[in-house]
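Before surveying the methods themselves, it helps to consider a single example record, giving the amino acid sequence and backbone structure tokens:
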Amino acid sequence: VQLQASGGGLVQAGGSLRLSCAASGSISSISVMGWYRQAPGKQRELVARITSGGSTGYADSAKGRFTISRDNAKNTVYLQMNSLKVEDTAVYYCNAKIVVAIYWGQGTQVTVSS
């Protein structure tokens, strides 16, 4: 499985960004896809996840502001981020789980300025 993340950038606080993660390869067995982020000096943390059945889950920091969704036809998962805060600044990674294997895409930088 290959994951290609895109959509990061520089945005002012209160703004919005949409991240995309395009999956290719043996994607039919993917059970969960998620977005994680890692800020400088901090551990990587879960932001949002979506199962093959469409169930979603969010970190408390993302609830009410971020929305994870997917387009099965395009094999792509999205993370719509609204009302961005300075503390959302991080490298965002998408991942996919197949049974017990975890695959990661390259990160995309999100920088929120005050």
Q: What stands out?
A: The mean pLDDT is 94.
